[in-house]
Structures are given as structure tokens and as C-alpha cells.
Amino acid sequence: MSKRPLPHPDSPPAPTNRRRWTIFAVVSFIYLLVYFHRQAPAVLALDLMSDLRLKGSFLGLLGAAYFFPYALLQLVAGPVTKTLGPRRTLCIFFGLAGIGTIGFSFATDLPTALGCRFLVGVGAAMVLVPVLEIVSAWFRREEFTTMVGLLIAVAGIGVYAGAAPLGQLDHLLGWRGSFMVVGGLSLCLVGCAWLVVRDRPQGPGPQQPKPLQENSACGRTVKVLSTPAFWPPVIWAFLALGVFISFGGLWGGPWLMHAHGLDKIRAGHVLAMLALGMILGGPLLGFLAERVLKSRKKVLVLAAFGLVLLTAATAFGNAMTLTGLFLWFGLLGMTTMAASPLSLTLVRTAFADDLAPTATGLANFFFLAGGALMQQAGGWLLETQGHTASTGTAEHYAPLFQAYFACALVALVAALLTRDR
Predict the structure, then answer these.
(1) 212 within domain boundaries
(2) Fewest CB atoms within 10 Å of the CB: 34, 123, 261, 410?
(3) CATH code at position 393
């Protein structure tokens, strides 16, 4: 009778090994909805402009109402998570996001809609840092980059759900009914997370928390911000993810409808390619960085160069077929959001474990601040060109694409200045 092999000494015990994947599934589903919330306005933009009687700048403000609190709260996400614990932080704040989503479905004017989207942004802001802390506690250090890549792939499903499927749901229930359903699902997930998720394994686990070497939140913040290695990957993300969030999460839908004559459902199918780029690109870029080139910096530079080529194709007025649009949006997702784990890992590995949550929160602030600013600036640029919900043309979007091209060039320089660890 053969003997069962002894487990590897670094492996978590069997119950932990099963449970950690259950926990990962729950927190991943919550993270999926965060990206759904980001993407949703792109498909529903014209409906929102019509129903709430919004100009382009006001629609940009509505998009920014989600991203500004999301970005600002990253400054305190690390300390709050350390104080309340990852599970409690995740459940309290994502519960607020669910309540805000339901409230948004009842909005009849701009102030109410802004307030509800602000609440959604506040709730979604406290998801990433707790999720990363939970993942780092339940999975080994050498598994972390792979798990972040899987999170980005799951986020890609959220982007997809906020594109074509949301267009179909909007056709059946309208935009109000759609947000009501999503808000209810968010609250159900909060209950599930409270019952299933735990901050860390009981007993020996893959990683145990270490005591903070710097007890002052202000001191940790200053330490992170004064570290030169923090800035190049953050600047890349500020600009590259700003392009993704601004265009893919808001103005891409109206552009497809105005410049290419697509209806809402077909525009949703094209926007869904952003998700495919994330789903395929996250694991692929991680594999290239860890196994082939053995350098996160080199892969980040390749992604940054790809974004320069993509934005150049639109900034200088090159026409695209429907097939070209599908390819362009897929590559946009791959060269921006799919590459974000590389940037995030470069930031985290630049700091000791006690500073990693603070560094992650601060980095995520800049990651999202770019999107918030570019959504609002994009609305202003379009409005100066005479763009409205019913009269938009391809020419109205030219300054927007030129701005994206300039951002991509600076992002490439930032990627070249990053340092591998």
C-alpha cells in the first residue's frame, strides 16, 4: 500500500487551501462589480444625458462623482484597513456602494444622481486594498502576482458585464431597473462576504501579518511619497489608466454611436472588447514578465509603446472598419488595464511589508485620479466643440484623441524610468 506524499512545508493546511479559493471567489466577485460600476456609464451615457437632461460637461461631472471620492479615499485606505480589518472594511464600504446604486436608480435630477454616484465611489474605494490584504494573507508571496493577474481578469469580466450585457439588460428593464438589480446584488454579496471571508487563516498560514515599524499614518505616507521608485510606475498608471477610464468607461460609447453610427447594443459589443483585452492580457503580460522576459519593466514599456500606437491611430484621423474597432478596443484594454498589475507590483515591491498597504492605497489614488480628471476634462473638450447627445460627430472628438496621444507619450517616458525589483 503506497504512502501519501507529505505536504510541502510552505503549503497551507488542506482546509485553508480549499477555503482560500472560496474566499478569493467571493472577494473577486465584489471586485468584478467595482469595474462594472466604472464601465456602466459608457453604454448608458446617451440615456443618462437625455433622461436627466445633461450636457457633456455635466455627464463628465457625473462620471467624476464616482472617481474623485474613489481616488481621494485611497489616501486613507491603508490606515482604515489596518484599523478596521480587511473583512470589516470591505463589507461596510461595499454596502454603501450597494445603497448608492439603488438610490441612483431613483434619481430624477443631477444633484441626486451626483450624490448617489458619490456614495458608490466612496463604497467602491475601499475594495482594492482590503482585497489585496486578504489575498496576501491567504496566498504565498510567490503566488501574489499571479493572483493579482487573476483579479484583473475577473475585473475584465466586470467591464464586459458593464458593456454588452448591460445594454441588453437596459433594453429589458431600462437604466433604472438595471441599477436596481445591480444594487441588490451588491448587498447580497456583502452578506456573503461577512459570512465567508476571514482576514487571515487561523494557525500557520502562507503569510502572517507583521507589526508596523512606522505607527504614524502620516509618517508612512511621507515615507512612501518621498521614495523615488514610487513615482514612475504611478505616473504611467495615472496617464494610461486615465485614458482607459475616460474613454473606455465614458466617452467610448458616445464616440461609437456618433462617429460610427452604431446602436447601443452594437456599441456595447465593441466596448466588451476592453474586457477581453483585460481577461487575456492580464495573465499573458504576467507570464511574459515572470517567465519569458523576467522583467516587469520591459513588459510595461511594451504596453506603453502599444498605447502610443493606438492613440496615434485615432489622434490623426485614421478611419477604422468595424473589425478594426473590435481590435482597437481589445488592444486598449490589454495595453492599459491589463498591464496595471505590473505597475502595482513594482510599487509594492519597492517597500517593506509594513508600508505595502499604504503604498498600494496611495498608488491607487493616482491610478484613479487620472480617470476622474480625464473624464471631466473630456466632457469640457467635447462641449467646447459643440458636442451634444444628439449632434455629436467624429470631428468633435478630435481634440480628445489628441490629448490621449500626448498622455500616452508621457506614460511611455514614465515606463522607461521604472526600476525592476
Answers:
(1) no
(2) 261
(3) 1.20.1250.20
pLDDT in tens, 283-323: 888 888 878 888 889 999 999 999 999 999 988 866 788 89
Q: Give residues with Cβ within 8 angstroms of 317, minimum separation 6.
A: 398
CA distance 409 to 399: 16
Residue of 392, 64, 121, 6 lying closest to 246 (CA atoms): 64
Give the number of domains in the chain.
1
Asked if residue 391 is part of any domain, the answer here is yes
Span 338-393, pLDDT tens digits: 998 889 888 888 887 678 778 888 888 888 788 778 877 887 887 776 665 556 66
The C-alpha atoms of residue 126 and residue 69 are separated, in whole angstroms, by 10
pTM for the predicted model, two decimal places? 0.73
Structural domain includes residue 2: no
For residue 408, the enclosing domain spans: 15-200+217-416
In a domain, 26, yes or no: yes
- On whether the CB atoms of residues 360 and 78 are closer than 8 A, the answer is yes
Q: What is the 3-state secondary structure (H, E, C) of the chain?
A: CCCCCCCCCCCCCHHHHHHHHHHHHHHHHHHHHHHHHHHHHHHHHHHHHHHCCCCHHHHHHHHHHHHHHHHHHHHHHHHHHHHHCHHHHHHHHHHHHHHHHHHHHCCCCHHHHHHHHHHHHHHHHCCHHHHHHHHHHHCCHHHHHHHHHHHHHHHHHHHHHCCHHHHHHHHHHHHHHHHHHHHHHHHHHHHHHHHHCCCCCCCCCCCCCCCCCCCCHHHHHHHHHCCHHHHHHHHHHHHHHHHHHHHHHHHHHHHHHHHHCCCHHHHHHHHHHHHHHHHHHHHHHHHHHHHHCCCHHHHHHHHHHHHHHHHHHHHCCCCCCHHHHHHHHHHHHHHCHHHHHHHHHHHHCCCCCCCHHHHHHHHHHHHHHHHHHHHHHHHHHHHHCCCCCCCCCHHHHHHHHHHHHHHHHHHHHHHHCCCCC
